């Protein structure tokens, strides 16, 4: 007697076919992630981790203070005297100011009563700086790295202010004021020739107005951390957002860049309408 194998024994079932398709999809996703990893490199992943830790410190401060957001005054003396308290202290520049290199301004709230408010939660000063930021200053005849590249969104924080007054957008001073935590950024990396105090200004009331410049340390992209705990590297598409760096020279700030979609993205993610 001749026996023949049933067709169902040699062909894929519908379920098996779905499994194969699923595996192929996972491999494609993994390949895409690997390529993304190649683009951003280890510095990109460390930068995102720093942002998550800093955001966790920001949230713990608010939890310990009935939802009140940490101070975010701006100005050269921010964090150094009463009335201008700030989450960090001092203002960075390309001169010989020790604010450029003083990690106490970041974490030593015990000796800076008007600044470094996140220090008791953040612990390490390393999380305040993108590892791809190699900006230096000359102090006592030596080139030394600056200690901070992260700034806080001006629309967040006790003592913070809007650029345009009055503004149509919410100045968040308490966690319960935040309506869209997934879309509003708290921290970002700021360009080395733009950064000064700890406050990054966005003017959401004036179309295409760019006050401070975001960083582009990761292949024309910069790191952001959002209220909901997410951190991402956002890529810039307009060359005007990433002008050529002139080492040691400050950048002209507060400019209008008509049609710049990057500025629009910043404005849309800085705050929300009242």
Give a quick rundown of the structure.
The protein has 274 residues and is an alpha+beta fold. The chain has helices at 7-10, 14-64, 104-107, 119-122, 261-270, and strands at 136-139, 142-145, 150-153, 185-189, 199-200, 209-210, 221-226, 231-235, 255-256. The protein is globular.
Note down, in words, how this protein is organized.
- With 274 residues, the protein is an alpha+beta fold.
- The chain has one domain (41-270).
- It contains 5 helices and 9 strands.
- The protein has helices at residues 7-10, 14-64, 104-107, 119-122, 261-270, and strands at 136-139, 142-145, 150-153, 185-189, 199-200, 209-210, 221-226, 231-235, 255-256.
- The chain has a 5-stranded mixed β-sheet with strand order 5-3-4-7-8, with helices on one face. Strands 1-2 form a two-stranded antiparallel sheet.
- The protein is globular.
Helices and strands in order, then pairings?
Blueprint: H1 7-10, H2 14-64, H3 104-107, H4 119-122, E1 136-139, E2 142-145, E3 150-153, E4 185-189, E5 199-200, E6 209-210, E7 221-226, E8 231-235, E9 255-256, H5 261-270
Parallel strand pairs: 3-5
Antiparallel strand pairs: 1-2, 3-4, 4-7, 6-9, 7-8
């Amino acid at each position: 007697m001749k026996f023949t194998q049933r067709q169902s024994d040699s062909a894929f079932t519908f379920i098996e076919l779905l499994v194969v398709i699923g595996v192929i999809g996972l491999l494609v996703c993994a390949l895409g992630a690997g390529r993304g990893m190649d683009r951003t490199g280890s510095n990109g992943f460390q930068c995102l981790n720093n942002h998550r830790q800093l955001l966790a410190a920001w949230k713990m401060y608010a939890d310990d203070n009935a939802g009140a957001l940490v101070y975010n005054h701006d100005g050269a003396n921010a964090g150094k005297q009463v009335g201008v308290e700030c989450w960090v202290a001092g203002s960075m520049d390309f001169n010989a100011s020790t604010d450029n290199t003083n990690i106490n301004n970041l974490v030593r709230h015990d000796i800076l009563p008007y600044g470094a408010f996140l220090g008791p939660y953040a612990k390490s000063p390393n999380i305040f700086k993108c590892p791809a930021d190699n900006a230096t200053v000359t102090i006592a005849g030596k080139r030394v790295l600056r200690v901070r590249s992260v700034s806080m969104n001006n629309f967040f924080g006790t003592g913070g202010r809007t650029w345009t007054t009055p503004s149509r957008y919410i100045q968040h001073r308490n966690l319960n004021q935040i309506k869209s935590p997934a879309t509003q950024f708290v921290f970002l990396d700021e360009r080395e020739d733009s950064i000064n105090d700890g406050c990054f200004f966005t003017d959401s009331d004036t179309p295409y107005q760019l006050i401070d410049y975001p960083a582009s340390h990761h292949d024309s992209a910069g790191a952001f951390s959002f209220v909901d705990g997410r951190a991402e590297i956002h890529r810039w598409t307009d060359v005007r957002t990433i002008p050529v760096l002139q080492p040691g020279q400050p950048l002209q700030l507060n400019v209008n860049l008509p049609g710049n979609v990057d500025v629009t993205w910043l404005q849309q993610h800085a705050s929300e309408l009242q």
